[in-house]
Structure formats: structure tokens, C-alpha cells
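Late entry, written up from scratch paper. The run itself happened at the end of the previous shift, but nothing got recorded in the book at the time, so transcribing now.
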Amino acid sequence: MSKKVKKEVEPPPKDVLDPLLIESKTAATVVLMLSSPEEEVLAKACEALYKFASKGDENKVTLHGLGAVEHLYKLISHENPTIRRNAVMILGIMASNYNVKKLLRELDVTSSLISQLAPEEDIVIHEFATLCLSHMAVEYTTKVQIFEKGGLEPLIRLLGSPDPDVQKNSLECIYLLMQDFQSCAAVRALNVIPPLLEMLKSEYPVIQLLALKTLELISKDGETRKILGENKGLDCLLRILETNEFSDLHAEALAVLGNCLEDVHTLRLIQQTGGLTKLLSFVGDSTVPDIQRNAAKAIAKAASDPGNRKILSEEEVEKCLIKLLEIDNDGVKVAASQAISAMSEDVGSKRAFGVQGISQLVQLLSRDSEEVKEAAVTALANLTTASPNNASALEILEEINLSTARKNNFSEAALEKLLDNNLSQKYSQIGYLSSSNIITDGFYDCGRIKPGVKFLSLEELSMQELTDRRAIIFINTKPQEDLTVQDSQDSSSELTVLSPSISRGGNRERASSVVSPMEEKQELPGQQYSLTKTSTKEKGLRKGKEKKEEEKMKEDTQVILQVQDEIKVESSQWLPPPDFILLDYINAAFTTILPLTTTREQVVALAHINCNRFVADKMGGPIERDKLHDFSWQLHISEIEFELKCNVVPIGKVKKGTFCHRALLFKVIADRIGILCSLVRGEYNRAWNEVKLVDDSPQGIPQLLLPPQEYIVDLMFEPGFLMKQGSVQADQYKQMY
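Output as recorded:
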């Protein structure tokens, strides 16, 4: 037998490298390996870089500098699932770095990342792809990219993932996207409410918190709030508030609930189930500033609706807000003050806040926080508007401002703002109403009062004994709509509603409050007022005019006295009688003055116009300068006071008026028809109106815009004459000489 010969092993091909195990301790070498065509090398290199990047931000910066991001961007679409997974993992943790995010945005990586959210992909890829997107979604441009490339739908689908990290990352990304209004609307359409409510049951607080924050954003929309209610979301929110274990979620739950309370039907539903009582009790017992602040914000949002204010007042929310003012936290004080401002639109709430709430708000003016002081000033202004009882906050502020030690910029600003909401007191104390200070019904001029002297209400003034002191002139064109006046059965007059043409057959439409200039302009074409023969004659021949006016004045006086008596009997709250004569003036101004084309024409016409005299004519006509002392206006007004048995006189009754009466009437009518003018009080019954007018452009320069010039309106000597401010004529008109 021949001897067996051992077969020799064939050597490896000469062009193939023997297997080589490489150990590298430098990141640069491993980054170079990302360019390898071998899948095993790529997988191991990615694995090593993931561990390296996870060690800290410095390593992420190093990898960014070595160009790793560009290589990884290519690998997240690799066919090999292991390589793809490892590359996504690295980008997921590196994206927290600002420069990495910026580079990923430039590379337009969002499309590739969104494609990794497909249901068939590995759950680890889902985790790190959503992590990367959530890091990038803090930038507005990336938000837009994710939205436009259809990223919302897969993100919402992943809220149902079994992996809590995927849930958390997806939810965080959705929350960031929803800060853009387009995404917010799209999220609602994708039915995100049910999964969000389900996530409130998560065992992970961070997921619950993110779900509440997302619900807060989306519940700002009315349709979403409706869907939230249909899915029993309100019950879920109230359960969170009732559970002490979820105390770290109470502030956010209140924020969501605050949005829901904006709807009247939602608030009523919560009230009917006892939830509103529990909510206010919970707020009152809480000692957590964030909870107290969010609760006050919720009340402020709800109070934006009149129906909600009524419901909140039924639950005595005023007590809760006053209690919150006592909390030593600026954020809570601001929110409570803002809620008080909103609630003060309700008359009952104004009374409920009363002295206690107002005094606490005044105290806030001494706080260091500018925001607190501003909120307190606004609340004080709203509480004192059209509320004489609450306006005694004004007295407290006056005392503070009279003290050099206690006054500050905010106490002065607060007094000024409150006076802007109480024009009667402002004009008495300061003697000036700007063009933005619009005189409304209820205004009265009781003359100048000194600082520190109590400012009496119109009701208090009306109840004083008849004296020889200066008459109080009041403005009120609003009839008492709930009262009717009947003449005796044997009278030929018809049953009439209190209207500007009472006893003269005026139509019912005119009994409403005076409309705005724009509304009146729309109604003017074709509008006819029904007038009796008496009123027609008054506009005709002047023969017998004084006699008819005297009869009319007596008639109106009887009506005013009758109405005033009825008001005092039937109403616990005193209301001034309506001034139908003034309302006639204003209606006439709408029809004759408002249609004039320029402000200058309107100003002149309102002061005096040949064919239809206004302010000057209503108050006794032009007066010669050297006969001013013979103009017996004091006697005339004393007769009216005696006739009315009261010191309070409606301005429409004044037929002989001097500077102060004419300037007030001019301002009242000008405010109603949209002419901007100010009212200034001088000495010795002097008062005047200032208007700003633009002079005509010089010839040859028609497009030149000149600055407005200020003029004083003559209502006494040459009615309608405009005197430039600072001129000798203007100075003489304003002063005794």
C-alpha cells in the first residue's frame, strides 16, 4: 500500500487581508470606520460611538467636530437593521446639542426620521427617532418641517406604544408641535383627545404631566373642549384634583380646567355636579402658589363671559379671590387681581368686593413688583367705574398721595387711572377732561373741590336741602326703560313711553340710548321722525317761541319730578331722571352736524350755525362782551332749582348758561357725534373747549400734511369763532378781564 500524503492547506488569496482585530481608543479612528463598506465594521463602530456619546456633552461636541453627524445621517437609511438602529440611537442622544440640531436641520433629516416611525420598525428605533425629533422640534423651522412632511399622524399613533419611552418622546414632540396653530388644528382632527386622557392614567408622572400640558394647549379651542367633555375629560380632571397622590399635577390640571370653564354650558355642568364648589374649596384650602395662581387664571378666563360671571357669583367666588389677595406671592396676587378685574364687569360682584377687596388692592400699590401694582391699578379702575360706593377708593389714594412719605409713582398712576373712570370726580378735582375722556350718562359737574374733601355722589347731592350754592349740572340721556308715564284718562294725549319727545308724540325708537356715529350714519337715509304740530311750530317762526318753550319747560319739569318720585319709590338704587331735552339736542346734532364733511365745519356748526343754532342758542345766544355782567344766568338757574326743589339740575333745562355750562354742553354733544375735544375749567365759572384741527395746505402744495393746531372754541361772544391756542384772543376768552 502506498503511503498517504497529507493534503496541504491552500493559502489565502493574495489580495485579501487576513482577519484583523483593531483596538482603538480615539474617537477619530472610529469615526473613520463609519466610511467602511463592511457591515460588521459599521455596526461595531456605531455601537462604540453610542457608548462614547452617552458619556457627556463634551463627547457629543467632539463627534460633531469630527464629522460623525454627516456619516450617521447616511446610515439611518441603511438596509441593515442593526446599523440603522445604532445610527438612529447615536443621533437621538446627540440631538440635544445645539450645533448638532442645527446641522441636522441643514441636512433635512426630518423625512428620514419620520420614515423610521413606521409600525414595522424596531421599538428601539421608535424610541430614539422620536427622541431626536423632540429635540429638534424646539426650533420653529423644524416644527414646520415635521408638520409638512406628515409627522403628526405617526407620532399620535405611537402614543399607544407599549414602551413608555416611546410614549414620552412622542408626546413631548406633539406638545412642542402644538405650539404652532396649524399643528394644533391638525392634532384635533386626528382625534388625539382619547389617547391623551388614557395617558393621564400612566404610572409615570412625566407622561401624565406632558399629557396635561398638551391638553392645556389643545383645550384653548372650543371644539376641542366639547370633545373633551364628550370623553368625560372633565371628570378625569376633577378626580386628579381630588387625589392627594397627584398633588404634583394639580396646577396643570387647573390650567386645563380653566380653559374648559370658558364655556357657559361646561361651567354650569360642573356647578350642577358639585364640581365648582369643590374646586373653589380646593383653591381656598391649598397652600401651593402655582395651584392658587392657576385657579385665579381659570376664574379670570371663565369670567370673560357674562353668563359665567353670574354662575361664579352664585358660588361666591369673590370671597375666594379676596382670600387669594392675601397670599404672599406676587404671581398669585397678579392672577387674583386680574380675575377681580374680569369679575367686576358684574354689578353684583362689584358690590361683593366692596371695601375689603378695594382696600387690599390699594395696599398692593406699595409692593415692589411692577406687575402686581399694574394689575392692582387695573382692578381698582374696573371696580370703581360707574360705582360711586366703590369709588371711595379714590379717597384712600388721595390720602396716600397727599403724604410725601407714602406716595409713589403707582399710587399717582392709580389715582389718575381711577379718575379716568370717574370723570365727574376728575373734572371736580383736576378741572380737565381730555378728548379721550368721553362724558357718558351719569356725569355731573358740582364745581371745583379741594383735595381731601369728600366727593359726594349725585344721589347724596340730590338729597341735600335746597341752598343758594352752585347748582350741580348733570347729564343723563338714558330713559328709565322699565317705567311708563300715563296722562289722566280725560287727556287727549296718548299713552307714551319715556322718550325724548314725551308729550310730543316721539316714536319709541328714539327712547333708546344714543347710538354711535357710524350706526347713526347707517340709519339716517330715509329716516323720519314723527313730530306733532307743537314741535313743528317750534322750528318755524320765532313769534311766540319763548312762550311755547316756557310751557314746554314746565311740562318737562312735571315729568321729571314725576319720574324722580317713581324711581325713588320703586327702586332701591337711586337713578337720575332722564333729560329728554338734551337727548333732543343730541339727536338733532346727528341729523344736522354729523353729515358735514370736515371736522372744522362740525365744530363751528356745533358752536353756532345761522340756520340751526346749537350750543350758543340753547344757552341764551351770543352776548356782547361789555354786557356780560348783565347776563342774568344765576337768577335763571336759581329759578330752575326752586322749581325742581333740588340743587341738581339737568343741563337740558338750562336756557341761560355761561362759559361753564356752554363748554360742558359742547363737550357732551361732541363726544356723542365723534368730535374730539377737551374740556378745561378756569377761574370764576370760566370753562372752554379745546379742539385740534389741521389747517388747509398752502396753495400750490396740495399734498403737504401740516401738523394739527389747537384752537379754543368761542361759545359766548362770537359763537363758532376759533381762536388759536396761545393767541391774545384765546387768553382773553379764558380769563377774567
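The two ends are 157 Å apart (CA to CA).
(Scratch paper discarded after transcription.)
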